[in-house]
Amino acid sequence: MRFDAAVLRAYEDPFTVEEVVLHTGPAEDEVLVRIAGSGMCRTDLAVRRSAGRSPLPAVLGHEGAGVVVETGGPATGLSPGDHVVLSFDSCGRCRSCLGASPAYCDTFAALNLFGGRPGNADRFTDAAGGALAPRWFGQSSFAAYALVPARNAVRVDPSLPLELLGPLGCGFLTGAGAVLNSFGAGPGDTVVVLGAGAVGLAAVMAAAAAGAVTVAVDRHPERLALAEEFGAAPVHGDSPGLPDRVRRLTDGGARYALDTTGSVRLINDALRGLRPMGRLGLVARLHTALALEPGTLDRGRSISHICEGDAVPALMVPRLTGLWRAGRFPFDRLIRTYPLAEVNEAERDCEAGRVVKPVLVP
User: Fold this and answer.
1) What pTM value is reported for the model?
2) Beta strands per DSSP E along the chain
3) What is the pLDDT of residues 199-213, one digit of tens each?
4) Which of 33, 62, 164, 284 has its CA at 20 to 30 Å from residue 146's CA atom?
5) What are the pLDDT digits (tens) for 264-313?
6) Angle subtended at Cα 191 by Cα 327 and Cα 328, rounded to the nearest 5 degrees
7) 175-307: CATH homologous superfamily?
């Protein structure tokens, strides 16, 4: 099977849209999906800074959504014609997976970042037969089609705008899941979100939907304006006395804080803005040592990393589409679509902050 895909051949090079070849159909636990849209996530772009650890050439993309065109059999639980959102891969057998925490799968890195499932290497090549890296996050969805494990395909209502749903499988799932799952925020709780990108704004929307008092911190006025529309009190990230301002807006300190920036300064500010026994969750990858200032963890405050919003995608994706239908999670307002052929323009706009969430449409 031949189709177009965006291939990244070298860490410094632009994507090239070219013909690729899928040499086999789905195995008994897989489905072939015609992609309707695939979100571009910071994790895709971070491959360029991965110090050679992520194999290239590769087809990236891990926020796909589309229509099932073929299945490996009845064990997949899916049928041709089903609309699905694709999420991260997991083994389904380790202690974390069996404990409903697939984002902490023992083989998460191997399955999603550094090689995929055994036997994938020879199934996917470029038009000349040259090797492409095994599936990125079980998807490689910057393409017209994706062959995916049925485990990470979530069936959705066909009346939903399918081409926009892909980011619910990672970026939006991460932000909303951190608030709703990891924190369990509810009415009367106080949440501060640092960084009003795709993950942060999803967290803001989820916090508002949960009835929490929310503060959003960012440097971009247009993103702070969006956060305010979604129900958060906006605070510029360079404001003097940021922790004091957060404490004033949250009646003495936030119960929860979510950092999406990886900024050591903002992480320390967030800790100082927490109430006693408050919790800070980190979702961004840290690129420097995290030096905590004296007193930031006093009085029962805690800090932890949150992966994929502690979500079970098969439960979380329907929850988020339900909130969207109710007008309480307007994620579509964050999206700008681009034809797959404009993948490099989408990347430039994303890196420059001109768009919150690019979605590539084959």
Assistant:
1) 0.95
2) 2-8, 16-22, 30-39, 58-59, 64-71, 83-86, 124-126, 145-149, 153-156, 190-194, 213-218, 232-236, 254-259, 274-282, 302-305, 335-339, 357-361
3) 999 999 999 999 999
4) 284
5) 999 999 999 999 999 999 999 888 899 999 989 999 999 999 999 999 99
6) 5
7) NAD(P)-binding Rossmann-like Domain (3.40.50.720)
